[in-house]
Amino acid sequence: MERQAVSTESAPAAIGPYSQGIRVGGLLFVSGQIPIDPKVGKIVANTVEEQAHQVLRNLGAILESQGLGFGSLVKTTIFLKSLGDFQAVNRIYAQYVREPFPARATIEVAGLPLDAKVEIEAIACYPKS
Questions:
Q1: Contact 70/63 with Cβ under 8 angstroms?
Q2: Is 1 helix (H, G, I), strand (E, B) or coil?
Q3: Is the CATH number of domain 3-125 3.30.1330.40?
Q4: Can you give the residue ranges of every domain in the chain?
Q5: Whole-structure pTM value
Q6: Three-state SS across 69-128?
Q7: Buried b (16+ CB within 10 A) or exposed e, 20-36
C-alpha cells in the first residue's frame, strides 16, 4: 500500500526526521503535535490549558489540510508531563471532539520535546469516496 506524506504550513514543521502525517489508504496517521505556534516556530503558551488549545489547533490544521475535521478522528493518544493536568486537558479536548468520540489513551511521560506539557497524536479516517 502506498504511503503519502502530508504537510501544511498551518501547523509546525517537523522538528526531526518525520512527517506531520502519513496517509495510507483510507487512514491518516498524524504525528504527535506539541504546542509550537507555527507563526513563530516556538512554544509561546505557558499554561497546560493554553498549550492544549495550541496542540489541538495544530492537529486541526493538519486534518483541515486533508479536507478532514475532528469528526474524522478514530484514535488519539494524549501524552502529559503530569497526570495532574488530566482534567484540565480533558476539558479543552472536549471542546474540539464530538460524539461518537474517538478511542483514546492518556499517558504520563517523563518529558516531552521542547519541555512541552502536552502532546497529542492521532489517527483519522477519510470518508469513503
A1: yes
A2: coil
A3: yes
A4: 3-125
A5: 0.96
A6: CHHHEEEEEEEECCHHHHHHHHHHHHCCCCCCCCEEEEEECCCCHHHCCEEEEEEEECCC
A7: bbebeeeebbbbbbbbb
- Tell me the pLDDT tens digit for each residue of 46-92: 999 999 999 999 999 999 999 999 999 999 999 999 999 999 999 99
Q: Strand 73-80 to strand 103-108: parallel, antiparallel, or no bridges (unpaired)?
A: parallel
Write out the three cell numbers for 88: 484540565
Q: Which residue has the cell 493518544?
A: 77
Cis-peptide, bond into residue 12, ω within 30° of zero? no
Q: What is the Cα 21 distance to its own chain's centre?
A: 10
